[in-house]
Specification:
The chain has helices spanning 11-23, 34-44, 60-69, 87-95, 108-120; strands at residues 3-7, 27-31, 48-51, 78-82, 100-103. The chain is an alpha/beta fold and 121 residues long. It has a single domain, classed as Response regulator (Rossmann fold). Helix 2 (34-44) runs parallel beside helix 3.
């Protein structure tokens, strides 16, 4: 069963993603902020990370950079999932090492297609 780490400070968003992903057969791990997300990614080595950007402390861009640059975790695809929809945000997210960038609210089919694509890459 593939494991997804959801890093989001919103319990509502985390719940929505968890519902969708569990329905599609994924095991869910969660973290409520960027620092915890980096730590959990190192401990659990999930198959993919869904990363929010706007969080207290370490933001999603910083956490993505840490995961994608660390020897132990750089193989894990990170999909940034955020309300920040400016082109500059998307470019910046990719530069931090994100495999893809989705804007909330995310369509379920688009989310599943993106997760499958980055896991198969």
């Amino acid at each position: 069963m593939p494991r997804v780490l959801i890093v989001d400070d919103s319990p509502t968003e985390t719940y929505k993603f968890k519902e969708i992903l569990e329905k599609h057969g994924f095991e869910i791990i969660t973290a409520e902020n960027g620092a915890d997300g980096v730590s959990v990614a190192r401990q659990e080595l999930p198959d993919v990370v869904l990363m929010d950007v706007v969080m207290p402390g370490l933001n999603g861009f910083q956490a993505t950079r840490q995961i994608s640059k660390n020897e132990e975790t750089k193989h894990i695809p990170v999909i940034i999932v955020t309300t920040k929809d400016q082109e500059t945000d998307k470019v910046w997210g990719r530069r931090q090492g994100a495999s893809d960038y989705l804007t909330k609210p995310v369509d379920e089919a688009k989310l599943m297609e993106t997760i499958k694509r980055v896991m198969d890459a």
